[in-house]
Amino acid sequence: MEAFSFERQIKHYNSYQKILLVGEGDFSFAVCLARAFDLAVNMFVTSLDSRESLMLNYSKAMSKVMELEARGCKVLLEVDVHSMSQHPFLISERFDRIIYNFPHVGYLHGPFSAECNGFQNRFHQDLIRGFLQNASQILTAIGEIHVTHKTTFPFSEQKIVELAQEVGLYLVHEEHFSLLDYPAYENKRGAWICDQPFPVGMCITFKFAKLHSYTTSGFNLGITAPGPWSGYSGIIGPHMQCDVTGNMPKYISTIEYSKAYSSYQKILLVGEGDFSFAACLARAFGSAANIVATSLDSREFLMVNYSKAMSNLKELENRGCTILHCVDCKTMNLHPCLYNKRFDRIIYNFPHSGYSNGLSSSEYSIFQILSHQNLVRAYFKSAREMLTETGEVHVTHKTTYPFSEWNIVTLALEAGLFLVDVESFSLWNYPGYQNKRGAGICDQTFPVGKSSTFKFSKYLPVSSSMVREY
Predict the structure, then answer these.
(1) Distance from C-alpha of 265 to C-alpha of 258, rounded to nearest angstrom
(2) Pairing mode, if any, of strands 267-270 and 291-294?
(3) SS3 of 175, please?
(4) Residue 150 pairs with which residues in a beta bridge?
(5) Where would one find the signal peptide in this protein (predicted)?
(6) Looking at the whole model, is its pTM more than 0.70?
């Protein structure tokens, strides 16, 4: 079988992100991304111009719009950045990246206007402030707003960073911009001479994010991991710290890592007991807006059978977690709140089908093992339907006999999932997580012993050395 190459990427954008492009001229930047991704189903592209204006003023605009639409892009015209968050096709959307390249308000006095004019500068600032304010309303909790802008005088006087701070956004990174990174992108002047390019000179892409309230608990689950935030000069640990003057730092991090999981991922937790694992991740991230946590039990059952379930649920709800009860992992992809969702990580810790003959049942019984296998097999099939193209299904499971007889890897293969990694599991990596027995003795913990987290994806790993026999 052919190995699958994971998400397609160009510079710091990838097909894994939901992207909104704002203020496009001839749509050449959008086309550049779409060609890099091959498809543009993850992109919304907007322009202030009407279709008629594009036809008259840009020689290649309509051919690019047609290409974008053919690749699945949603193209919206006559969209004002000052009010885009209220646009009928955008009001209910949330984006991971919102991008505005070289914002320009137009010229107050026609082509004879000067960029160094104070009034002209203030009009530019009003445009950018309005864009940032609107963009923050349609940004995911962990998303970024990107503004590419000249950094020489008089453009430096527009003070992009200060404008962002006025609307509650904080700088997380600056990166030098080069046209060489974006083949086929033709930056256009707009205004009176729309179809002409302009020299970009010294430019920077400013990246902004919302400020998050991070946990101040004593736990530090964060680790530096490869990913979109590695190498950032502004990464701050899970305890947000001000400088010695009490002012907010210039750079704010909006992502924290807990072992193999991050606030950058859309996470579905399956078969939660007292929801302590979900609460552990939420504390590490400082927010649970990216987490959906499910349980087979009803809320009433949790109240009666788990001593800490309700306090964990309250904490999760306060952190923005979506909580669903009475969710059967075998049919969860058909659940009305889940059937149209896709996740980056779907996690089931210590799956157990319950005891077929009550508490007297033996884990060594072939009938008990078959019951467990049926549960896990159905979970894999359902989870696969809800996985993003680059996502992973995780199962944490004991690896000693008789649990090794479940043959987790084989069950996954039957459901069309392939092993990409196996990692030893330790409770020490997840402070606050209390694994529960469930069944007839719900609130009791059990020794995890030798356990591993098995990680599966819909495609064979590029490196065959990652596939091992178990």
Answers:
(1) 11
(2) parallel
(3) strand
(4) 203
(5) none
(6) no
